[in-house]
Design goal:
six-stranded mixed beta sheet, alpha/beta, single chain, 11 helices
């Protein structure tokens, strides 16, 4: 089987399932594991580099209003890969190539590859997507083992934080402007022993004002801007602290959102473990230095 993965999360899952030899094409964002960078890149971003957070938000808003694609699919590269399976999404036009774009490209190329759409909105659906990819690649046993190990880790976190005070917690999926979390992130907070104060499990993230943030009275604020690593998240969190946007006394943390919060793959469990360590120091081992940083 020759697989093109148009999502960083499904690339990670495929490699975890042992299907790395079958993956022939990826996106420019597929950087984990490092070996994924050696595959042919078939999609790139239409967004200019070097934009500030507010500029990124404005660029995306203009593109969405104009009906423009945020990602470019390289039909030439796709054609040359002779794919049997193309994995894409229909969840978020800001996150990756939309399935309609893939369908149009394959039809134009006369390619008969199967298109598999992976659209998890919740943590349970993320785990189910592992099974879906396992079935599609004839690796059902590997998928079952991976899901079992992830569930065991989540169960251990829940056991360790059970009965403890649940700190009022806000995870910011964007910082300028502020976005409350959606999809699986509020669930992650709950599993980690926190009380999510803004955002609804399974729903989209949404823009909030700083007055709403302060009114929510979070005890812990976690900067997890979508697509940003720890260093960039920390830099944006510092800006928030200096601007005085956050409630007095609230802890402020930055995390590697790119690795363990934004991508619906196995490393979300790393994110739950990191959150539990942030919210319940002593009950859970401290988060790795490359995953989370306390700023105040």
């Amino acid at each position: 089987m020759r697989i093109v993965s148009l999502l960083p999360s499904t690339t990670e899952i495929l490699f975890d399932l042992g299907a790395e030899a079958d993956v022939v094409g990826v996106t420019f964002e597929c950087d984990h594991p490092a070996e994924a960078r050696s595959r042919t890149i078939v999609s790139t971003s239409a967004m200019p580099e070097g934009l500030a957070s507010a500029e990124i938000d404005a660029f995306v808003a203009r593109a969405m209003e104009a009906g423009e694609d945020l990602y470019h699919l390289d039909e030439g590269a796709l054609s040359g890969l002779d794919a049997d399976l193309v994995v894409t999404q229909d969840l978020c036009a800001v996150c990756a190539v939309d399935v309609s774009v893939v369908d149009d490209a394959l039809a134009h190329l006369g390619c008969t590859a199967e298109v598999l759409t992976i659209d998890p909105h919740t943590l349970e659906e993320v785990l189910a997507s592992v099974g879906t990819l396992g079935k599609a690649t004839s690796r059902e046993a590997e998928a079952e083992a991976l899901v079992a190990s992830l569930r065991a880790r989540l169960g251990e976190v829940v056991r360790r934080v059970a009965g403890r005070h649940a700190p009022r917690t806000l995870v910011l999926e964007w910082t300028d402007p502020a976005f409350a979390p959606g999809h699986w992130v509020p669930e992650m907070v709950g599993l980690a022993g926190g009380r999510n104060v803004l955002g609804t499990p399974g729903e989209k993230s949404f823009r909030v004002g700083w007055d709403q943030v302060r009114a929510a009275r979070p005890e812990v604020v976690v900067a997890a801007p979508c697509g940003f690593d720890l260093a960039r998240s920390a830099a944006l969190a510092e800006v928030l602290a200096e601007a005085g946007h956050l409630p007095d006394g609230a802890q402020l943390w930055a995390v590697d959102a790119n690795a363990s919060f934004a991508r619906p793959g196995p490393r979300l469990v790393d994110g739950v473990e990191a959150l539990a360590a942030i919210l319940h120091p002593g009950a859970v081992a401290a988060p790795r230095e490359d995953m989370a940083l306390r700023l105040r």
